[in-house]
Design brief:
There is one protein chain. The protein has two domains: 5-32 and 44-141 and 377-436, nicotinate phosphoribosyltransferase; 143-367, TIM Barrel (Alpha-Beta Barrel). It is 37% helix and 19% strand. The chain is built from 15 helices and 18 strands. It has helices at residues 46-54, 60-72, 79-89, 125-128, 130-161, 183-194, 203-213, 227-231, 238-249, 265-276, 278-282, 297-312, 338-350, 364-367, 449-457, and strands at residues 24-33, 40-42, 95-99, 105-107, 111-117, 172-174, 255-259, 287-291, 315-316, 322-323, 328-332, 358-362, 377-386, 389-392, 410-415, 418-423, 435-439, 442-443. A hairpin with a 5-residue loop joins β9 and β10. The relative contact order is 0.16. The model has no long low-confidence stretch (mean pLDDT 96).
Length: 459
Amino acid sequence: MKLNFILAADSYKTSHYKQYPPETEIVSSYIESRGGDHPKVLFFGLQMYVEEYLTSPISQADIDEADDIITAHGLPFNREGWQYILDEHDGYLPLEIQALKEGSFFPFRNVLVQVKNTDPKCFWLTSYIETSLLRAIWYPTTVATRSQYMYQNIKKYLELTADNLDGLPFKLHDFGARGASSMESAAIGGLAHLVNFSGSDTMASLVYGRKYYDIDMAGFSIPAAEHSTITSWGRGAENDAYENMIDQFAKDGAAVAVVSDSYNLWHALDQIWGEELKEKVINSGGTIVIRPDSGDPIEIVTETIVKLMEKFGHSVNKKGYKLLPDYIRVIQGDGVSAEVITLILERLMQLGISTDNLAFGMGAELLQKVDRDNFQFAMKVSAAKIEGVWYDIYKDPITDHHKQSKRGRFAVIKSGKSCLTISEKSLGDKKNLLETVYLNGKVMRRQSFDEIRKLALSE
């Protein structure tokens, strides 16, 4: 059941229609990222929000429910304003939302989204949607940005230690569905990660990719064991459990992942994989991906690869780095973060081991351990039309000038290889990168996932 959109706001928003200056006609706001750990953000996710929440009209039942809940909650309800939207606009929000291209990178403090009301009687609506609109931007953009910088980091180590980048799209796999706060968060965050990579176990993201971005299949996965499917065989039959994985799933061109630390990882590597099942691994036709799943990731991953090379041998690639045979690889899915990835890949490189031996899985660190402050997202009113006159609106706290907001209506233009936010008045004949995405209930711009990926990876 979809939430009543009128109730998708912070409580205090319900009283704001009484707080603006008399004769206010238009309120204009913008969304930006004010800073963070990386120099740019990868903008993504607005299209999902627009199509899910703004293309369906509010109903009389929505108004009645909101009236009941909000007044009982202790706040005034703008019934007249919402009834006007229903009666005069058939329930569609009289707003214009402009945005930059999803999939593009933009330096901090550039306007990503700009929104204003299109009906003077609905001046209060612009800020009313801040809660849901800002959330729709900061979360997927933060996940996509962090994922992209991990993509760039892994790519760097592949360029240093591997002969090609063929495996790059599958070097960071999304394990985050169970660690996300909701199904919707998993779907949105999971799809944001797939802007950069092609590996995911978050199936909800695949549904969102089809529904909102016209991609039949945004990500891929492989058969993989979990501890229950290994330990249910009993400790004495661990080798039988592994052999079953080979028999069931290993075939020409296929990969299968087998968690191998249920009891004694070192015994599994040295004895079971390296001796008892060695010939079966070699002759399977597929790729067996060993997953160590506990202990210090840097030490465990390094020792796992070293032991596998001792048992199965290795080649030396054109860059001079050691590489396991094609039929065996490693994935680390426990305790993985951006920092841990760097530490592991740096350690392997120091030991003359190629990044191509390894892939990573990331769970809550990817989809859940993020917040609005990672990149300091904010939505602020910057202009208002009152009695026919436009005024610049801004804040500039003396206690924190970093929170100073922009003034006026904006355009974003290309500036060399980057971009620059300028006053809409000074745009002239320059192209405005802010495009109208939504207008009065209608979607005005749609991007395919393929287009977004192409933009993101072209960086």
